[in-house]
Specification:
Layout (H helix, E strand, L loop, with lengths): L5 H12 L4 H8 L3 H13 L2 H10 L8
Helix pairs in contact: 1-3
Length: about 60
């Protein structure tokens, strides 16, 4: 799967909001349609930053270890 920056993810979601179909965005970006839809849902609810931070933190050990 393609590793995209927050800015690139936001741009893909904005393109869809401007009328580009998810399938076309998926073809050109290499990201699954369902993943694009998840990003859009998170951005609508304001959870995008929290999710990305949690994903990054998973690799680190908990502070009590």
């Amino acid at each position: 799967m393609a590793h995209l920056s927050d800015r690139q993810k936001t741009e893909l979601v904005r393109q869809h909001q401007d009328g580009v179909p998810w399938t076309r965005l998926a073809e050109h970006s290499g990201v699954a349609v369902r993943t694009l839809q998840r990003w859009a849902a998170r951005m609508e609810t304001g959870q995008a930053r929290e999710h990305l931070a949690a994903t990054r933190d998973r690799r680190a050990l908990p502070p009590n270890w």
